[in-house]
Amino acid sequence: MGMIFSLVKLAPVFFINSLLTMVFVNIIDTTLGIAEIDYVQAMLVTISLWIVVAPIAFLVSRMKFSETQTW
Question: Which end of the chain is less congested by CB atoms within 10 angstroms, N or C?
């Protein structure tokens, strides 16, 4: 039950993140030579990034780091 409420709390963050994605892409679109995106496309970009980044962030948060570990 707690998982459902945590997802409900993330909904406004998703929509604000989509809005910011749209704004920032439309600011740099001429520099990168890409077309402007609308809000629906920004939502698609945002959910795509969340699907990729969320599992990675979860796995990294579960890792145990030690002082002697070298990369």
Answer: C
Is the distance from CB of 54 to CB of 48 less than 8 angstroms? no
Tell me if 23 is assigned to some domain.
yes
In the numeric block, which tokens belong to residue 31? 């520099």
Q: 68 lies in a domain? A: no
Helix axes 2-32, 39-62, angle to 10 degrees: 120
Q: Does residue 25 form part of some domain?
A: yes
Distance CA 39, CA 31 (A): 20
Mean pLDDT by 10 residues, the chain (71 residues): 71 91 93 91 93 87 72 61
| pTM: predicted TM-score of the whole model, two decimal places | 0.68
